[in-house]
Structure formats: C-alpha cells, structure tokens
Amino acid sequence: MQIIPAIDLLGGRVVRLTQGREESAVVYSDRPEETAAALESAGADWIHVVDLDGAFGRPGVNAAAVERIASSVRASVELGGGIRDRDRIRFWLERGVGRVVLGSAAVRDPDLVTQAVAAHGPDAVVAGIDVRNGRVSVAGWTEDGGRDALDFARNMESAGVKLAVVTEISADGMLAGTDARSAARIAEGTGLSVIVSGGVGRMEDIEAVDRLRIPGIRGVIVGKAYYEGRIDLAEAIRRFGPPQPGRAS
Questions:
Q1: What is the CATH number of the domain that holds 183?
Q2: 151 a catalytic residue
C-alpha cells in the first residue's frame, strides 16, 4: 500500500484545514519546497499537493509555490484544487506535475475528463471524489455536487480514469481515524484503484485500512498527523509501503 504525504497550500504557505473550512487553517511552513524535500527524505515517492486557493476560486495564488515544489524534488507530484479546464491541465503537466486531480471540474464537465485522458493518458488524470453522506461535494467542499459518489466513480471509470482519491469530508483533519466506507464502496463497486484520504491520526489508522484487504484500495494520504508529529512518515512508509530496492520489507 502506498503512503502519500500531503501538502495543502493557502497563500503560498503549508497549512492544514479541519473538514475543509478555510477559517480553520493552521500554518506549518512558509517554505513549501522545504516541506516537500523533507517528505521525500522520509521516503515518499509521491506527494499530494492541494491548491486550496484554487479550490476556493482564487486561481494562480499558489502557482509559484507549486512550481518550486515540483522542481525541488525527484518525487512525483500530484496536484488538485482549481484545475478546471484543458489549459490548466496542460499547464501543470508541462511544468513537472506528474498527474492532476480533477474534482469539481469532473462533476460539472465530465467531457473534460474524457478529453484530458485522451490528450495526456490515463496515468496523468486522477478523479478527486470528495464525499459527504455518500454524495459528491464540489467547490472546495462547500456545495453538494448532486451526485451519488459511486455513480460518479463509475462515470469516471467510463471516461478512462484509473485512479481516484476518495476523501471522506467528515473525517478530514479530525485525526480521529479514517472513515473508509466510501473508499471501500468505490473500490469494490468499480475497477478503479483508490487512495483513501481524510482522518489519519496515528499509525493504527493506516493499519486499519491495510487490514481491510480490499484489492482496489492502493494507498492512504497522510496530512495533519505528520505535521502534528503523530506519525513518523518514514516508519509508515517502511511498514506499509511497497518494498523498495535495497530496503528490507
């Protein structure tokens, strides 16, 4: 199982929110590229970056920060938040981002996903499925997207997507354990590979996801627990991540 650390950007700084509420932001660093380097040093192969300003309708605020992250590490970067048209998809993929996460845009314009997969390949496009009470949320989690999460996931699979990041909004930033029901439902109800996001507060929470033994669940995103010192990222990667060359499993 892949352990993917997260960097959330607000005003160019590394922050974490609670349940997606902007007013809950806690700042951890004003040098996101240094944070990315630390995550890579701990063994991260992928870093999950969220442009919160973009998600809240303020595009461009974190562009320089994202570019610094992508250029400062060898680890691959996946980027979500405010990517809502073909130009922005191409812009970021040309600037070193390994894959883009489409959330609100995918709900509102499914054809965009089909076009992006056709243009850039299925490995470059991820469905970001943010779930509250079984339904998809959009616009930085502020609006109901009007779709059942599983039905939407099936649409994304039909559009050619292979990977989905599934966030249970009620658990995000709470450090009280993952609520993997939506992720499990999507992993078992589609052929998508699923990354679980939201709620990891300690090593046992990652272990709980691992114990589900659902083949479609391929990883877990770790955010606030790392920044609060509750999880040793290097240890989590060693225990739960795939074996690496030269590293004991």
A1: 3.20.20.70
A2: no
